[in-house]
Amino acid sequence: MNKVYDDSAANQSANVNVKKQSSHHIIQHKQDPNDIDHAPLYKIGQYYNSPRYGRIKLTGISTERNLVFMRNQLTTTINWAKVCTNTPRTAAQRANSASDYNLDKVDNPYTYLKVQYTVQNQSSNAMTFGGVKQVGFANGNVLSGTDELVIDDGQSEQLAPHSKRVFTIHVLIDKFTDQAHPKSVHLYFDDSKGAVTLKKASQGFNCLLPFTYDRGKDA
After folding, report:
1. What is this structure's pTM?
2. Tell me: the pLDDT tens digits for 33-69?
3. What is the per-residue pLDDT across 110-167, written as a single tens digit (0 to 9) for each?
């Protein structure tokens, strides 16, 4: 009886030790603190693994954020801008990445600009938001807002009276910037029109976004 009890106790002790060692092993091999397992990314150097696209890493952020532009009764806030690098790991991820820009393939890794902005229609009439018209880079290159490499989900979107909406711009920038690290990005937004009258209801605007690539900087 004692022997059986002692063996059980020994086994329990051994199991506890194994669990402790296993737990210690897991702690020692805890993933990189920059791997936050999810979006959004807030600090330069952070990354996460997207099932759809691959490993997405934050490499740069704009030093200007929450810029407000009031035009008549339409207010647009440029919340933030980031430069990210994506490394597709599978054929499906490469295909998904390319299809977003209507391309056959993308560089691996590839770099893109992401901008979030908020638009508030303070009028009693519906408006059609102009969206981004041009994207200019510090090296002199310019992309049209209608280029396939520019995706603005707010372009030509209808804004209901007294509504607020959040939109995102994605720009594939590998071939248009110096080593995919733009010193600055200049965004030009088009005029907005009345959804019914089709007449200009709000003038366009532009903003200059300088970028930093210092690791640890917050977005």
Report:
1. 0.83
2. 888 877 889 899 999 999 999 999 999 999 999 999 9
3. 999 999 999 999 999 999 999 999 999 988 899 999 999 999 999 999 999 999 999 9
Going by C-beta distance under 8 Å and a sequence separation of 6 or more, which residues neighbour residue 147? none
Q: Which residue has the tokens 């391309």?
A: 103
Cβ atoms of 54 and 88 closer than 8 Å? yes
Inter-residue contact 188 to 204 (CB < 8 Å): yes
Identify which of 179, 187, 188 has the alpha carbon closest to the alpha carbon of residue 213: 179
Contact 177, 186 (CB under 8 A): no
Residue showing tokens 């804004």: 159
> Using CB atoms within 10 A of its CB, is residue 18 exposed (0-12), middle (13-18) or buried (19+)?
exposed
The rounded distance, in Å, linking the Cα atoms of 210 and 208 is: 7
| DSSP strand pairing (74-87 vs 54-62) | antiparallel
